Amino acid sequence: MHITQLNWECLLHLFSFLDKNSRKNLAKTCHKLLEVFQDPLLWPLLNFYSPVELMKDNFLLGPALKHLSICWYSERVKVCNIEDWMKNSLQKDFCKRHENTVSDFLLDVCNRCPNLLSLTLSGCGHVTDDCILQLLKNCPYLKSLKLENCVRVTDHTLKAVILHGASLRTLHVDFCRNVTQAGLERVREKCPSIMLRAERSGNMIPDSKPEKKLMLEKASEKLVQL
């Protein structure tokens, strides 16, 4: 029996065991398998480990997407999470290359994935409060929002949670150093049903200037080597 002779449910099940690249490669073999690849039901879960992955064509965004995770762990994250006014010209040039990549992708999610239930962002230094606001407005069923080391997230995101996070039950803003203790207290007061976690946020001690300068120099050296 040829694989294309299997019924649709079996094909979807087989595809579900493959990673994004393998699914795309298999879809190139024939028209029927391409149709399976393009079935929104195949894509309830998406995990990304680099902004570069967001620009590939090996996945599909659609109403079936329920769980999305973008977790970026590398030395480059340190550069993106440096405050803009502290960046040197080399670091600013580096950040411009992908400054809007994650934000543009999330706005696309707003338009195509209204049934999203959970979103995890880690190391996404260019994600803004406005982007999170749009997600909360356009994804009314969002139950879990986990943000980590997202330097541009501020109390405006917490206000958006209070105003538009009616379904939200879990909120993490770990290592989001521009979130304040006052903002966290407002969330606890206005939304007592939300399980809030804010490790090293609110009361987080800012980096001292000598330490920051040393980190900038080391990050610059590593970027030059790439």
From TrEMBL:
GO terms for biological process: SCF-dependent proteasomal ubiquitin-dependent protein catabolic process. Keywords: Ubl conjugation pathway. GO terms for cellular component: SCF ubiquitin ligase complex. InterPro entries: F-box-like_dom_sf, Leu-rich_rpt_Cys-con_subtyp, LRR_dom_sf. The keyword Protease does not apply. This is FXL22 protein. It comes from Elachura formosa (spotted wren-babbler). The lineage of its organism: Eukaryota, Metazoa, Chordata, Craniata, Vertebrata. The gene is Fbxl22.
